Amino acid sequence: MAKNHRSDGPPTDPASRPAPGAVLDRLASGPSRASRITHTEHLPPREGRHAVWSDRIRPEVVAAVQAAGIEHPWAHQARAAEHALDGESVVVATGTASGKSLAYLVPVLSTLLDGAEAPNGRGATALYLAPTKALAADQCRSVKELSHPLGHSVRTAVYDGDTPFEEREWIRQYANYVLTNPDMLHRGILPSHPRWSSFLKSLKYVVVDECHTYRGVFGSHVAQVLRRLRRLCARYGSSPVFLLASATAAEPAVAARRLTGLPVLEVADDASPRGELVFALWEPPLTELHGEKGAPVRRTATAEAADLLTDLTVQGVRSVAFVRSRRGAELISVISQERLAEVDRSLARRVAAYRGGYLPEERRALEQALHSGELLGLAATNALELGIDISGLDAVVIAGYPGTRASLWQQAGRAGRSGQGALAVLVARDDPLDTFLVHHPEALFDQPVESTVLDPDNPYVLAPHLCAAAEELPLTDEDLDLFGPACEDLLPQLEAAKLLRRRTRAWHWTRRERAADLTDIRGEGGRPVQVVEAGTGRLLGTVDAGAAHSTVHEGAVHLHQGRTYLVRSLDLEDSVALVEEAAPPYSTVARDTTSISVLETDVEVPWGDGRLCYGSVEVTNQVVSFLRRRLITGEVLGETKLDLPPRTLRTRAVWWTVTEDQLDRARINPEILGGSLHAAEHASIGLLPLFATCDRWDIGGVSIPLHPDTLLPTVFVYDGHPGGAGFAERAFHTARTWLTATRQAIASCECDAGCPSCIQSPKCGNGNDPLHKRGAVRLLTVLLEGAPEEKEAAAEPPTEGPREPTEAPPAP
């Protein structure tokens, strides 16, 4: 729970905290360190504006809030609570640590207290949805603390995959504030709705926390899960009010409306105070090493972040280092622990890693240690990005741009949550987008966060939810408006596939298996692969099915809790990877090949002689080998072949073509055509996260000197999810701005022939060969000469499905 005037962590008196500017000065001390800071942004402190709670709030709840140290609400909290009490769905879109939790908790607790006095029945209930188990567990602890003075009127419980079975029946029958996640709602609660009938019948509020995370395919799935929930509530006679919260959302009311299918009001005027934030952009130095094709290599963001976390810990500065990958979190933790041990052995124990894939008891222990102050430093994936209350942090190190400005500000907001000043440092990876951003700070600090992209009508998303809804309760014509206009075409297809059957006025589920098992709402494509220690049979953790081919293939290096393992075998049929502990002096990176074919072109816009297109494609991807890279330096030690099956993906793509005349004007001969297209493809994928709510690993690309479907040189960029996720569509709409930034990023890079900062890709299936930097600049220059104004290129394309070749995300 966000706190207006207090913290549950160690003492956080702002006067006793180190000034963020002073902390940065110490980090940058030394001749080589200072030059790594390319920009420093100072966000000034802000005064808060108070209000009063509505007189409709129960006095016991107001007293409980005051007992927690919060005398008066901020203006946005009081306003959001008023909307909730009026029965109006509302989204609170104010900054990190602005007290959004209190804005929805106060009306919820007041309503639960009213319901507890009902003469008959269970009384009012409320459901809280969080994108992660950790956030739900953290919120449960906060709610119990706040509601303790209210006695047994508020019965709070977490219901997720970690909940012991003996507790579940009590929760269904007696809990009136249930905290869960969309996955459990989809697979556990909705399919078993008769057992939840009394809870659903009394449901007054549904809280959707961190709603900006519900984007792309995951967001589209969650939108349909919420529609299924609303349908069952109506069946039991309830119509809950939706209360949504997000610290980082563009057009929050529009996004909330698409997510819930309901009219939603917006409270976005942040009245909370804010401490000073010093935000530094940090570029690691070039090394003497050379990478693929002799390209210069910068020091890795991982090594640089480990150094910064070490220095912060030595200074006693409480910090989190965010890193994009699980392996990176483990590596930063290990490096930092080793270096701290050289200073003081006791300090090494005060740094740890936190990531998804840990066992529940491991996660809980780490959360508690961070909360109590036992841990001074943590290397974490975005599993810790969301609103977990880790009050008292002084600094955040972000190892690599996290993919969106929304995530960047969410991570930076983890520090300074008690009102004190804070330091945030973005450490650039050797990557086109990161390099562009640290030299163009206006792209971060002068731009709003991205619009949330989701498409509930995506047939790959909608179809399994129609089946799940039909199993929960036969589908009638009256239900179709709730699920959207695409139902009319999909239902006959589901009937033809013998998944649904029409009887009189309703469609029924026909199979014995559970319809909810037809889809994984996070788009991870199958059950997770279990990582098992070969010698003991001990389960270490899990890896998403979609990432298994590239992360736990035979010979892969796997990190877990600071220990290094080598994968001995990967059994795809049983979803098990056997590992054994080892200490190789290298990490591993998978290589793959990709091909793409056009299924349908929805929109085609002339760009001079060339064409910009959007439509459906089919992508075939196969992991074929892996590289061994020396730790810290990233030097390539060798390549090993793999024999893994190909995977296919139907998705959405944007692509552009050029003609012979355009190639002549760009001085592109056949010898450099492939390298020029390939370089433009890599750089455009690297820059797309500036324009769509995605990161590099959500999308893939292919470039072909003569594509069999277009009969022209063609570059494709596609969504890495079945049916598409809205990213390619966004690229189509902003193509002129997007490709202009791409050209600028390549042209302004200081390297001679191309490097990871401009045209080399960390996930290129062809080993970054061929690439031609100057050819890519000339090619994009000629292409952009014929680009129409943005609105002209953006005839609204519909949404459906796709194909590919060179840079592929993990296929589902």
TrEMBL record:
Regions of compositional bias (Basic and acidic residues) in chain numbering: 38-51
InterPro entries noted in UniProt: DEAD/DEAH_box_helicase_dom (IPR011545), Helicase_ATP-bd (IPR014001), Helicase_C-like (IPR001650), Helicase_put_actinobac (IPR022307), HRQ1_WHD (IPR055227), MZB (IPR018973), P-loop_NTPase (IPR027417)
Entries under PROSITE patterns matching the protein: HELICASE_ATP_BIND_1, HELICASE_CTER
SUPFAM superfamilies in the record: P-loop containing nucleoside triphosphate hydrolases
Keywords: ATP-binding, Helicase, Hydrolase, Nucleotide-binding
Region (Disordered): 1-51, 786-812
Helicase ATP-binding domain ranges (all copies): 81-267
Single GO term (MF): helicase activity
Domain Helicase C-terminal: 308-460
Xref: NCBIfam families: DECH_helic
PANTHER family in the cross-refs: ATP-DEPENDENT HELICASE HRQ1
Protein name as it appears in the record: DEAD/DEAH box helicase domain-containing protein
